[in-house]
Design a protein that fits this description.
ANK repeat; 121 residues; 50% helix; mainly alpha; Serine Threonine Protein Phosphatase 5, Tetratricopeptide repeat; Ankyrin_rpt; 2 domains; globular
Length: 121
């Protein structure tokens, strides 16, 4: 039940509930697709929650059932600000999904491509 609550609170951007659930130790929970709460924070552009989850040491490199990471998702969705934020926490840029693609392969705009190229230098 706590897993469902964490995912729902993160998706809806309810900071206080997410913080309380993290304090209870459910921050490493994953849903049926193997996505962790960070995925939902990135999906919803909840920047404060992204920081909160990463400060709680949620796995930034968690790979879902397709091998995708939040960085791959953010790059493919053109979420430039989310990509910038994630890069501050030094994700593994070289992880590959099940189709053998890395985050840089998913860059959907020039700014995301530039950010990921510069991060690999």
């Amino acid at each position: 039940m706590a897993i469902v609550a964490l995912m729902k609170a993160t998706r809806e951007g309810v900071d206080a509930v997410v913080k309380e659930l993290i304090d209870l130790g459910v921050d490493q929970a994953r849903n049926n697709d193997n996505n962790n709460a960070l995925w939902f924070a990135c999906f919803g552009n909840h920047y404060d929650l992204i920081h909160l989850l990463l400060a709680a040491k949620i796995n930034i490199d968690n790979q879902n059932d397709n091998g995708a990471t939040v960085l791959m998702y953010a790059a493919s969705a053109g979420k430039t600000e989310v990509v910038k934020l994630l890069l501050q926490y030094h994700p593994n840029l070289y992880l590959r999904n099940l189709d053998d693609f890395q985050a840089i392969d998913f860059a959907s705009n020039v700014e995301v491509l530039r950010l990921l190229k510069n991060a690999t230098k």
